[in-house]
Each structure stands twice: as structure tokens, then as C-alpha cells.
Amino acid sequence: MLTLDSIQTLACGGLLLLVGYAIRKRVPLLMRFSIPAPVIGGLLVALAMLVCRHWGITPLQFDTSFEQPLMIAFFTVIGFNASASLLKVGGRQILMFLGLASGLAVVQNLLGIGMAKAFGLPPLFGVVTGSATLAGGPATGLAFAPLFAKAGVHGARSVALANAMAGIVCGSILGSPLAALLIERLGLYPAAATRIDAGEPTATVATEPERRFIEPAHAGLKSLVFILIAMGIGAWISQGLGMLGLTLPSYIGAMLAGAVLRNIDDHFHWFGLSVCSMELIGNASLSLFLVVVLMDLHLWDLAGLALPLLVNLVLQSVLVVALCCWPLLQLMGRDYDAAVMASGFTGFMLGTTANAMACMSALTERFGPAPRAFLVAPVVGAFLIDFTNAVIITVFVNVWT
Question: Which Pfam families did the record assign (predicted)?
Fold first, then answer.
């Protein structure tokens, strides 16, 4: 058996990440469903290991020491994206959209727990297959997996991946058709007033209000340093919260520290942080984290769980569609933008923000621009829901442990 050290494992993960991008580029179906490239690359190894296990062979062993810091770095960047000024841009609609998403995350967990009990599974199995992997996506599900495993959920990592991937597919399939049906049945076509003029800025609200020119290399270095500072401060915060008896994922402290530093910079302009550099580092960290985790995934842990996962996914999909058809559509204005928001909501509450953006883009290409939808949905789906969902999952873990 060949054992790869942490550097070799990370290098292998990077190579598989590039392979994943190449495969997705050449397989339109994968691109259509917005399947993440790290998932494609990592699953190649996971599937190969599953086949080898069937023949009683273990060809490789990985050292996943970098998994934890990569995961914390990604969620730290999520924290840096949580600017209070963003709430002022979309105002009331962003808050309502976030409220709906957070409320649905709670219901996802309650529904999942009910389903788990019906199949004689631990209650926290329902949280793994609820908001941890649907509203949270694969990153959040895998981040919480160690806590779920300690609480008695067998094969938590494998369950998290399977449910997250199935959710991504469902979100991609349901998002655009649902919104198109609402648009056509209710006559919610875009009005001329909603179209964006050539000179009007688009909804890129995650950039600095007054971005100054900074040398790219210096901006990247500064962003990396502040991410590391937030991770260091976050370790103390997480340690303090742990001493209070709270069961929390390791990234919570760093995410909170990042949010505080971002809002201090927004108010006083002391640091001159570059959101673009932060997002680049965060996306790279997430991609490497996912591929390294999936390389070492034990897919054989899913044996016997296919039926509970399928029943749960069907019920969760019906729940999301029902919420989009009535309360969300009404609260968001019952117009064209609201229908496009419903598409994005379905995408990220069952899958990821990438699914949401793909669904909304498909609609706007067909029916016309929806500037309000592209302002509200990405702000909530990209990071605000990660904050509230982390709190929700943590509460469920502490109550049911």
C-alpha cells in the first residue's frame, strides 16, 4: 500500500481538481447541473477505492492534515463577505429572503428528523440530510460531519456527500422549470422598467464601494495575512465557546472574526481589504478542501441507506417547491423578479449558490433581465444563509446530542 504524506495528498488533490474541470468541460450534462469540479475529481478516486475494496485491495492511503485549515480558510472568507452595508443595498427584501431561507432550514431539519425516526435512524441523521447538506451544500455538510459522527451518525461524511450531490441535481432540475411555470401561468413577464440600461451598474454588491487601485500581488498577500489573522483569533473564540459547553464546528470562531474585521474595515477603512482577492483565496481553499475530503471518502458506508435518502430528498424537494409557489412569491412582490428569485431559492436551498445562479441565468436568457433577483438571491445564498444555517445546525446538534 502506498502512503501519501500531507503535501503529496494536496498535490494529488490539485491534479484531480484540474482533471475535474477538464471532464466537466467535455461533458455538457455535468456543466448543465453545475456539478462542482472538485466533486468530479475527488469522486474518481473515491469510486476507484470502492472498487478496490470490493476486491480486498487498499492501494492508497492519504494524509488529510490540510483538510481542516483549508475548510476553516474558506469559511473565514465567508465571514469577510458578511458586510453590514450589503443589507442596506437590498434592504427589506434581503432580510425577508434571508428569513425565509433560515425558516426553511429549520423545517428541513425537523422534516429530516421525522424521516430518520420513521426509519429507525438517529435523529441527527435527519439534520445531516436536512439543512446541513441542502441549505449548506457539500462544504457545510462535510464541515459538520465529524460532529455528527461523534454523535452516532454512522458514515456521516458519506451520507453528507451523497445527500448534497443529490440535492445539487434536484436543485438544478427543479429551479428553472418551476420559475418558468410561474412566469407563464401567472403572466409575470419582465416590465420595461426592470430592464437594466447600458450605463446602469449591475448587482455586483460584493465589491468595495470605493475600490482603490492596489497592486494585485500586494492585495493578495494582504488578504492572505488577514485571513490567517482571523483564523488565529477564531481559534481563541472557538476555544472559549467550547469551554461554555457548546458543540460547534471549528470554523465558527474564524467566520465570526472575519465578519468583525470586515465591518471594521468598512466603517474606518483601516485595512483596505480586497474582496476579489479574498474570494479567490476562499474559492481555491474550498476546491482543494472538497477534493481532498472526497479522495478519502468511504462510499461503502452508504450501504443500506439508499431508501431513507431517497424518501427524504423527495419530501425536501416538495417542501421547497411549495414554499416557492406561495409565501416566497407573494412576499417578494409576485412579479417577474420574484419568480426568478424562486428559481434561485430552489437552487441554493437544495444545492449550492452555483445552482441558483445557473437557474436564474437560464431564465433571464429566455425572458429578460431580473436585476432585483440578481441582487437579493446571491447575497443571501452566497454567505448570509451560511451564517444563520451554522447557528441552526449548531442548535440542533446541541439539543439532540
Answer: Glt_symporter (PF03616)
Q: Confirm if 235 and 56 have CB atoms less than 8 A apart.
A: no
User: How many residues are there in the chain?
Assistant: 401
| pLDDT at position 92 | 85
pLDDT at 191 over 80: no
- In terms of residue numbers, what domain contains 156? 70-207+304-400
Asked if residue 359 is part of any domain, the answer here is yes
Task: Compute CA distances 295 → 70, 261, 317, whole Å.
Answer: 15, 34, 28
Cα separation of 250 and 69, whole Å?
A: 10
Asked whether residue 39 is domain-assigned, the answer is: no
Task: Work out how many domains the chain is built from and give that number.
Answer: 1
Does some domain include residue 146?
A: yes
Q: Are 290 and 13 in contact (CB under 8 A)?
A: no
* CA gap 213, 353 in Å, rounded: 29
C-alpha to C-alpha distance for 38 and 100, rounded to whole angstroms:
30
Confidence (pTM)? 0.78
Query: Does residue 286 fall inside a structural domain?
Result: no
Please give the backbone phi and psi of residue 136, each rounded to the nearest 5 degrees, phi first.
-90, -30
Which residues lie below 8 Å from residue 237, measured CB to CB, with a gap of 6+? 252, 253, 254, 256, 257
